[in-house]
Amino acid sequence: MTALEGTSRQRSITYAAPVHKVSRRARVILAIRAFLTVIVALIMLIPVFWMATTAFKSRADAVAVPPKVFFKPTLEGFVNLLAERSVLAQARRQEMQARRDELSWIQRIALDAGTEIIGVSQYVGRLRNSVIIAGGSTVLAVLLGLLSAYAFSRFNVPGSGDLLFFILSQRMLPAVVVTIPIFLMYRRLGLHDTHIGMILLYTVFNLSLSVWLLKGFIDEIPRQYEEAALVDGYTRLQAFRKVVLPNALTGIAATTVFCLIFAWNEYAFALMLTSDRARTPPPSIPAKLGRGGIEWAAIAAGSLGFLIPVVIVTFALRRYLLRGVTFGAIRQ
Amino acid sequence: MATTQAISGGQSRRRRQLSDAALLRLFIFPTLILIILMNIFPLFYSLYLSFTDYSAITRQAPNWVGFKNYSDLLSDKQMWIYFANSGRYALLSVGLQTLVGFGLALLLNEKFKGSGFLTTLILVPMMLSPAVVGLFWKLIYHPSSGIFNYIVTFGHPTAIPDILASPKLALWGIIIVDVWMWSPFVMLLCLSGLGAIPDYIYEAAAIDRASWWRQFWRITLPQVAPLLMIAVLFRTIEAFKAFDVVMPMTAGGPGEATELIALNLYRQAFGGQWRTGRASALAYIILIIVIGISNVYIRFLNKIRGD
């Protein structure tokens, strides 16, 4: 058995056949798999690609007919997003054009679109709010979820089925309706438009997912591991830390990513429960809609910039996400 | 059984450590207390409001009207259309997500060069902000300046109608976006489930010369089922709450082709007269339906786990 360790599943299925034939067939199958996956991935990435390119388009190019794949890139969208601008009158515009060389490159981009920069937009502060709120609530949700999931998975919790359903039901009521009472409650408690209020709210919403998911993962870890550790003189807590945690890393990574994505992108609550201090970008990016037509480039730039932190976290956790649950001992 | 053994094993060792019962409380209580504190008031308050004629923009105190909101809603033929829309949307989009997600997971389960990188790339649609996704897909679906029609018809965009303006195709338009966005979620969960299947099961099946098809039905599917079902459960719940992607994309149109129940709920709560009481009643009707569906799923899930 140990000789087979590390060989792929495809090979081990047909391991009765001669070795060179197997590896060749497996190679062909693997190539077909890889090809199919690349095709699907490419199709799924077209809209993302479109968003990324739109972010660098000028206003006219963004809605060109037919759609433009090749275009002259501009940072107009990003300038629109990050800076507060005012539209220039004809005379002032000509005056600015005359002393174009004195202007910084950012102001030149704004000038090309017929506007002048008058300050930093609120977007930067909103991005910071997102980091605080999404980060805080993700850590809390995963930590609390992990502890309860372990307890539900391993101990005889009285009424566990009902409790789990109660936890799940937190996610069932549409946000639109819950917001009205939460709004009233938060205003009374002074939690309206605060970081802590949003962190608590997102934590509660994510707990349903985190408890259920992590319970699913911990259920898959054989109990014999911990029982062996307990026999060896570990306490429950030590067994949890040294046996369960390392084996649940995949689940923890997956849960972290899901919770982070939800809290990072949440729209309805943020729209209704924050106004300025704790507002995050999702409700404000579509607000770029107004003021003379849709600013697609600014919306795309905002979405792209907002996407990057989540992509970085997911890539950082990739090793755990894709490692799979490895039950070394049970494979012997 | 195993739990009771473990507990008695722990008690027999006289050592200074937390008893399992204390540990259990320590582990579960923070979660439950937080949920109760945050949700009991909103839940009961909106239940109370659902029996009143309250409107959040007037200064009038809520008037008790009994079951009027519920009976009005249930006898309104329009509401049944919205429920049917939501049902069709949930069934089709969750079904397709399961197929695409599970299919991708099967493809990616065998590691090849760059598969990890590809998997992470496939996750990108899920990471986008739903409100922006809905807005942006409107541009993608645009009949002349969008790329969807161009790609699907290989450069003859007028060969097919404007998806979001066609009463027949608009629902498919929002289903495609949901499938695009959330198949990666199903894929990731299935991938974790597939990774957890011990190789020795397949090795035993290979010795018995079981066909690939048979291995799939007898080993792969039952082993992945618990995590797959959790994915389906959460996606179904979300489908009945679908709002932030659809609202900017179609706002329920054309006509009422994409008026999902959650969209209509928003309209009742914050549009026109702000009928908070009626909206709360509708929310509870949705809740009861979702609880019913979830119960069926969970019973099924427990049955799979019990085997």
Average pLDDT figure of chain A: 79
Question: What's the story with the biggest beta sheet of chain A?
Answer: 2 strands, antiparallel
Oligomer classification: heterodimer
Q: How many strand elements of chain B?
A: 0
Structure, explained:
The complex is a heterodimer of chains A (332) and B (307). With 332 residues, chain A is mainly alpha-helical. Chain A has three domains: 2-54; 61-121, no CATH class; 124-331, Orthogonal Bundle (MetI-like fold), CATH 1.10.3720.10. Chain A is 69% helix and 3% strand. In chain A, strands 1-2 form a two-stranded antiparallel ribbon. Mean pLDDT of chain A is 79; it is low at 1-20 and 325-332. Helix content of chain B is 72%, strand content 0%. In chain B, helix 4 packs parallel to helix 9 (170-195) and helix 11 (212-241) packs antiparallel against helix 14 (276-306). Chain B is globular, with a radius of gyration of 24 Å. The interface between A and B is large, with 123 and 120 residues.
Note the main attributes of this structure.
heterodimer; A: 332 residues; mainly alpha; MetI-like fold; 17 helices; 2 strands; 69% helix; globular; disordered N terminus; B: 307 residues; 14 helices; 72% helix
Topology of this structure?
The complex is a heterodimer of chains A (332) and B (307).
Chain A: H1 9-13, H2 19-54, H3 59-62, H4 76-82, E1 83-87, H5 90-98, H6 105-112, E2 115-120, H7 123-154, H8 160-169, H9 175-189, H10 195-219, H11 223-231, H12 236-247, H13 249-265, H14 268-273, H15 281-284, H16 296-321, H17 328-331
Antiparallel strand pairs in A: 1-2
Helix pairs in contact in A: 2-16, 4-16, 7-10, 7-13, 8-10, 10-13, 11-12, 13-16
Chain B: H1 2-12, H2 20-49, H3 68-75, H4 77-109, H5 115-122, H6 124-127, H7 130-141, H8 148-152, H9 170-195, H10 199-207, H11 212-241, H12 246-249, H13 261-270, H14 276-306
